[in-house]
Design brief:
Layout: E1 6-9, E2 12-15, E3 21-26, E4 31-37, H1 41-60, H2 63-79, H3 81-92, H4 96-120, E5 124-127, E6 130-136, E7 139-143, H5 149-163, E8 166-170, H6 176-188, E9 196-198, H7 203-212, E10 218-222, H8 225-237, E11 241-245, E12 251-254, H9 260-272, E13 284-288, H10 292-304, H11 316-331, E14 335-338, E15 354-357, H12 364-367, E16 374-380, H13 383-390, E17 395-396, E18 399-402, H14 406-413, E19 422-423, E20 437-438, E21 441-442, H15 447-452, E22 455-461
Parallel strand pairs: 7-8, 7-10, 8-9, 10-11, 12-13, 12-18, 13-16, 15-16, 18-19
Antiparallel strand pairs: 1-2, 3-4, 5-6, 6-22, 11-21, 14-15, 17-20
Helix pairs in contact: 1-7, 2-4, 2-5, 2-6, 3-4, 3-6, 4-5, 9-10
Keywords: Oxidoreductase
Organism: Streptomyces viridiviolaceus
Protein name: Aldehyde dehydrogenase family protein
Length: about 450
């Protein structure tokens, strides 16, 4: 798609406050494919004012009508899914098949789920001698990342719309074209002017202005834990609600009774998916000592198959960050069994699918989020040791457990300090709540729990 040179505010594309722009670069060939405005605090203020003006009307809109707008939004996403996939591939570098299957398809499912929820949710309930109203929290400032550019937008915007909130979106500067395309989708779906607004720009400028703005009632942020802390502190000073979906270092625990080959192969695929740029990726594989050598061999063989199947990481800075972690892993004594710190291609921000063996739990690569196609394999002595290692990071976003008996896997998963656990390769469910424990965040996205984040309650006693 062709980049817009303005901001989508109050139902129309408007010139930006200044002339500064952001280059959009294709990470596969390092070519500039577009330019978007670098929004200022004045652009953010205009968008928030539009959202506040639209709030009373949208909040008073019957849920059935809000559901109809969400259904229309879903239908436009379906009609433009090929364009969406091509746009994500161009600015993120994701292989087209993956963009079609995940980047374009997941937002359709999420939008559809909220169209149904908006139509069926009980926004009013009787509790004893009280009537409890569930009302929109107000104006939402949504700040989204680049790794799943449309999915993360829809995961915030759809429940906000269903709740009756109005929104100002500040997307990641690496993938703004997908956000601009989404603004076109919102417009085509007939969402009223001012209900959804888009400001492109840099995080320290536009993102900070949005988080600080007194007209914003809730800040919903997905990104790094470091930035999440700053946003949380900013919002806390104003006693403003936040929803934070942050980093992860998820454990993939393979119990001795599991199908080892299946668990390893699916685990490697999970880490390599989206070039490792997934906050919930199972980047730590935990294997019993008796099966460790076999698992390492299987993982190395599996990773070798992904050399030409994954795309680049998003930009040069991220490439150097990931390669730096690979070098640190070697320096701290981990053993490379696949990949390494040499870029596999001269052009583009590519990183080789990498697997480390002999990783110990105190190593940097076992504790910090790398956000690239890098897997660490750790050995454990017994089930209690596995649980201790699995829970032994500051994160708690996701994880996996494999066992021959499902009940055995579930019993282990219940003791993991993490927000979501896949049992024997369980499938993605857009209705299940997603979010973290510990430093992986505050709040939940998706499904009924995701809708609740955008509501506040009022009790009327009789």
């Amino acid at each position: 798609m062709k980049a817009h040179d303005g901001m989508y505010i109050d139902g129309a594309w408007r010139p930006a406050d200044g002339r500064d722009t952001i280059d959009v670069v294709n990470p596969a060939d390092e070519q500039v494919i577009g330019k978007v405005p670098a929004g200022s605090a004045l652009d953010v203020d205009a968008a928030v004012r539009a959202a506040r003006a639209a709030l009373p009307g949208w909040a008073a809109t019957p849920p059935a009508e809000r559901a109809a707008r969400l259904a229309a939004l879903r239908d436009v996403l379906v009609a433009r899914k090929d364009e969406i996939a091509r746009t994500v591939t161009a600015e993120l570098g994701s292989p087209l098949k993956f963009s079609q299957a995940v980047h374009a398809a997941a937002p359709i499912a999420v939008a559809g789920s909220y169209a149904e929820l908006a139509a069926t949710y009980a926004f009013e309930e009787k509790v004893g001698n009280s009537v409890v109203h569930h009302e929109p929290i107000g104006v939402v400032g949504a700040i989204t990342p680049w790794n799943y550019p449309l999915h993360q937008i829809v995961a915030k915007v759809a429940p906000a719309l269903a709740a009756g909130c109005t929104i100002v979106l500040k997307p990641a500067e690496d993938t703004p074209l997908t956000a601009q395309l989404f603004a076109e989708v919102v417009h085509e779906a007939g969402v009223p002017a001012g209900v959804f607004n888009l400001v492109t720009g840099l995080g320290p400028v536009a993102g900070q202005a949005l988080a600080e703005h007194p007209g914003v009632d809730l800040v919903s942020f997905t990104g790094s834990t470091a930035v999440g802390r700053r946003i949380g502190a900013t919002a806390g000073a104003a006693v403003k609600k936040v929803a934070l979906e942050l980093g992860g270092k998820s454990a993939n625990v393979i119990l001795p009774s599991a199908d080892l080959a299946k668990a390893v192969n699916v685990g490697v695929a999970n880490v390599m998916s989206n070039s490792g740029q997934t906050c919930s990726a199972w980047t730590r594989m935990l294997v019993h000592r008796d099966q460790y050598d076999a698992a390492v061999e299987l993982a190395a063989e599996a990773a070798a198959k992904y050399g030409d199947r994954i795309g680049p990481v998003v930009n040069a800075k991220q490439q150097q960050r990931v390669l730096g972690y690979v070098e640190k892993g070697v320096a701290e004594g981990a053993r490379l069994v696949a990949g390494g710190s040499e870029p596999p291609r001269e052009q583009g921000y590519f990183v080789s699918p990498t697997v480390f063996a002999d990783v110990t739990e105190e190593m940097t690569i076992a504790q910090e989020e790398i956000f690239g196609p890098v897997l660490s394999i750790l050995r454990y002595e017994d089930e209690e040791d596995a649980l201790r290692i699995a829970n032994g990071t500051v994160y708690g976003l996701a994880g996996a457990v494999w066992a021959g008996d499902e009940a055995e896997a579930v019993a282990f998963a219940r003791r993991m300090d993490t927000g979501q656990v896949d049992i024997n390769g369980g499938r993605f469910n857009p209705l299940a709540p997603f979010g973290g424990y510990k430093q992986s965040g505050v709040g939940r996205e998706l499904g009924l729990h995701g809708l609740s984040e955008y509501l506040q309650t009022k009790s009327l006693q009789f």
